[in-house]
């Protein structure tokens, strides 16, 4: 059976000397794993569309045991990302998360939209990288069924408090009056507002908030701890991002 679809290449592996195995996150078919014959060869017509981070239009042949890419045209290759190692590593981390969280097709379309928007902002340098990182992390986990409970203190129901502590393992909050145990991250009112915005806002408004640099770091720390506690697996692209940032 043949079908056509648009999707983002979120993982790419070389097979043999010149073939590629790619994972494509699509709007309508979830994650597709497909072979692209001779795609490593520079002059091959599949070369551009089947590289990591390319959003493209694909014609695919599906048989009972494998998918094969017959044709591929790039729609967007996010060229600017490939000239900046830090932004490139962050883009690869977004793909890594999508590869883990969009596998069963649940919310794949929403995850694709999230990653494509983040890649556009990352390309343009229009938002601070740490804000993009936290927005992608918290929103993608929420779409995939791991939404943290940030509405109020889990102990007393307070919506705001002088001290609020986020617990990455539980994915919830305790206020200072509820005697939060060790292991949580104290977050400022501004960071809590940002986290609520990322998790609960309409998609169109997701990336439109600002934070000072100290707060960006606090947000990034809380968000990343939540990713690590939720997924509990190694994330090589995240490690690489950190190795570049010292
Ligand atoms: Zn409380």
How would you portray this structure in words?
The protein has 246 residues and is of the alpha+beta class. The protein folds into two domains: 2-76, Nucleic acid-binding proteins (OB fold (Dihydrolipoamide Acetyltransferase, E2P)), CATH 2.40.50.140; 81-152 and 158-245, Up-down Bundle (de novo design (two linked rop proteins)), CATH 1.20.1440.120. Helices cover 37% and strands 24% of the residues. It has a five-stranded mixed beta barrel. The protein has a three-stranded antiparallel beta sheet with strand order 7-6-8. It is elongated and about 65 Å long. The model has no long low-confidence stretch (mean pLDDT 94). Bound molecules: zinc ion. Zinc ion binds at residues 153, 155-156, 158, 174-175, 177-178.
> How many domains in all?
2
CATH architecture tag of the largest domain: Up-down Bundle
State the distance separating the first and last CA atoms. 49 Å
CATH superfamily of the largest domain: Recombination protein O, C-terminal domain
Using the coordinates shown, work out and report the CATH topology of the largest domain.
de novo design (two linked rop proteins)
Round the Cα radius of gyration to an integer and report it: 20 Å
Helix-strand topology string: EEEEEHHHEEEHHH
Residue ranges: pLDDT <50 for 5 or more in a row?
A: none
Number of helices: 6
Small ligands present: zinc ion
